[in-house]
Amino acid sequence: MDNIIKGKAWIFGSDIDTDVIIPGKYLRTTDMQVFADHVLEGIDPEFPKKVKKGDIIVADDNFGCGSSREQAALALKYAGVACVVAKSFGRIFFRNAINVGLPLMEADVQCNEGDEVEIDLLQGTVKANGEVFKGNKLPDFLLEMLTEGGLVAQHKAKKNTH
Question: Where do the domains of the chain lie, and which CATH numbers do they carry?
Answer without folding.
Answer: 4-160 (3.20.19.10)
